[in-house]
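Colleagues,

Please find the record for the four-part complex below.
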Amino acid sequence: MRENKKGKILNIAARHFSRYGYANASLEEIAAESGVTKPAIYYHFKDKSDLYEAVLTDRLSQLAWDVETVSDTADTPQVRLRRYIETFGSFLETHPCFAAILSHEFADNGTQLPESAADALANILQTLTAILNDGVEQGVFAIKNPIVIQMMIVSTLIVHQTTDKLRKRVASRIEKSFHLPPVPNIQGIARLLSHHILLAVQKEPT
Amino acid sequence: MRENKKGKILNIAARHFSRYGYANASLEEIAAESGVTKPAIYYHFKDKSDLYEAVLTDRLSQLAWDVETVSDTADTPQVRLRRYIETFGSFLETHPCFAAILSHEFADNGTQLPESAADALANILQTLTAILNDGVEQGVFAIKNPIVIQMMIVSTLIVHQTTDKLRKRVASRIEKSFHLPPVPNIQGIARLLSHHILLAVQKEPT
DNA sequence: TTTTCCTTACTTAACGATCAGTAAGTATAG
DNA sequence: CTATACTTACTGATCGTTAAGTAAGGAAAA
């Protein structure tokens, strides 16, 4: 046990899976960057999908724990929803690879997503569903279909985090007559997002 | 002079690029499914990226035209915003491959997106930016950063459209105690989304 | 009318590169 | 001596791409 080569492989693999997606991440490159050879990966992991699952469950179980512990207080649905969104944002900030990996899974319709990761994802979304349902039952939220709100929150944060270069590239083509304020970091986005989401789900004073 | 072979290749290619992304779509499979051989593709298109660009610009210029013509009326920003969102939804309905292709580009941070597609994308977003800016100037919208609203609209529609199987897979793991209403089609989602977005950007009567 | 020829629209066959995965050998620590 | 933690060397498959050949059809020449 000279060094923690396995941990190194896991970290490098996370970066490669996030940049290239599951199919296009090369074990050869991951090995080289980790300072080992390709079969060394096969010593530590059964195959490519096993390495991928290790990378994913690591982060997903952490996120599931984060959003669950932050929201199971006795606060109002509004406060819990705001906390959920901002916790999600903080997590993306501390785990930069995670958003891009999930973004690739969105694009692939979850083709490569292992069962364990689907379980963790279900937990994460169930926590959010519970908050939204509570709000509706307490008469403070007006939501016809929680799926839409879930998508508005999760997809906005994930896609924003993964499309930094693309957004800059596209924004540079937009006429300069439009004043475009600087883009805040992901936590700033999460704060702005939670503000708009709370307005979006509020019960209208008819 | 069977001109429909080229069109056939374009259609099949769109389906393959949407399912597998640019890098993982196989010219061999596209050719086989189109009823030709691989070099036949190289007769009609310079290379793989040229075929990709043809598929993309086809759809993007159409979408740019759709959202522009629908919104340049003299209506209120609220009506124009609602129309923009629902036009976007209709477009995704009639062009099922488009959302997934864009979703792959989001995940890849636009690595494979050709210049012409970036131009069209800029036009599409500029139309939305103009609507939001008008709303702010007319005092009916309260928006700190239009990027957030753009992401809420575009990412929600795109990701929702591409994650049908994944959402079903995850939803089946959520406790049955939660009543989950049936998921409407993309146009229904667009209608619900526009309702929430209009609430989210409204100027608060404080 | 018949023959020649050129362009169009492909096909067959192969290239080098890269991929995930494996068999078999080896150095090191306890 | 033995288990751990690798390495070297390789396999078969698939990838984008290209060189070279060919069938079909219309236009020009005989």
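The CA atoms of residues 135 and 141 of chain B lie 5 Å apart.

Comments are welcome before we finalize the supplementary table.
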